[in-house]
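Quick entry between incubations.
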Amino acid sequence: MEALPSLPNVAMKNGRIQIKKQTKATIVMRIVLWTLFAMTVIGPFLLDYGEIDWAEALSLTLGNLQMMFLQPAFNQITFGTAMMQIGITLALAFLATVLGAVISFFLAAFSARNLSPAWLANIIIASNSFVRAVPTVLWVLIFAIVAGLGAIACVLGMMLHTIAYLTKAYAESFEELDEGTIEALKASGANWWHIVWHAVIPQSSSYIISWTFLRFETNYDVAVAMGAAAAAGGIGFELFMASSFYYDLHEVGMITYCALVVAILLEMISIRIKRHYLGKA
Amino acid sequence: MTGTQFLRKKKWTMTIVFIILIALTYGSAALTQFNLIDGLASIPATIAWMFSNLIPTAASFENLPKVLGRLWETIILAIVASTTAAICALLFAMLGAQTTQVNRFFGVTARFIASVFRNIPVVAWALILVISFGHHILTGYFALFFSTFGFLVRMFIETIDEASSDGVEALTASGATYFQMVVKGVLPDTLPQMLSWVFYMIETNIRSATLVGILTGTGIGYLFDLYYKNLDYAMLGLITILIIVIVFFIEFTSNSVRRAIS
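Done. Structure below.
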């Protein structure tokens, strides 16, 4: 092929027109992709595996998985108990979500850029990212030292992350509020609380509902985890007992199925709510 | 319906919803024996306790190399689990998304598999795998891998379907093969968004790795659990501070990368 003569205003390389443009974004992306690739390839060699017999572990796992998922059964607990424990897990998640949502609402109103001064917003945002940086299970265990293991530590620990998450979500939807509405209310002599009650809540209520339910869905998962890791009760604790105390794989399978069904139901409701209120999937 | 009637109806609905919510809250509190007053009272008590006890001492800094080693293990685990899960999730998302699905049957199957993986909680994976793999780093890896995979398939499918399908249509019309259509039409549009989800998962996995570590005896979670049970609060403080530093660092990196590529 003959090389094209160089044209003005057209990027050329080796006598060919360059279709792709090298922007900062593509370069950064390439670097990031290569870094991730390198870490993925090298990473496994940096870990200490100790002694493991791959063939045995894999066949054992497959056998175990078969026992769990194809022959689930209740042995130590009954179906009724399992339902009761799922109820407790849902209740823990519900408490953390509701308490968290109420607190987040006020924090969000104080941290939305259009409603509050910048310094207050910055303090709230900074403390939220501090709260988010500590894993939930650490919060629960730290609360457990003072409040004792159980519902209080579990709900408070989950509530902190709920607050950090929902404050950000609520504040973002508050910030989408029409500037004109606020101005009109201000001009007619409304105070800050009037603005929040009569402009902010009505306009962002559908966002609030979908975000809150989405968080409830997440909190259910977290509550299962906290039951297992921090002995907070609920279905997670039964799962922990079945697997680490009784080594009863059939029961582990059954409990997993129960937890799974509830999780899928919650996800379906959450998608419905999102579609109903926000008009998208 | 007149304006007043509408407002009155709205007021009633609101009142009923609030009554139901309060009833549910009371019911939940009774079921779990949660006491709101005690709960709220223990927040300031805990904060005061944290500032007086969770302070690393000189003695705890002697264990710093050990903690850093475990922390490194956790970070690598979170990254490797996220990237490998992302590769698998990309394949499933291609099958599951409306724009790129090969046929309906594969589409529904891929979405169903992802949904099952996503909704089995990460602790369930950890507890299931710990039986066969033992207290081993692979247990943590697979637990994180499975849950990340499920989540990323959902997010990747949403990303692909939200991106415009015009390019795909144009490529298909001009006779491009499926492979060309995906590589030249779908990937360039969606890669930045997908990458930002992968970063989000790396962040999340650092936190989940701590949780999984407590259950499977690996990484930083294991150390935290060990010192927690020994009531060595100075060490707990050191570990907590290190985790915060790492999470902040990863959040900062991912935010700057996200800003650069979008």
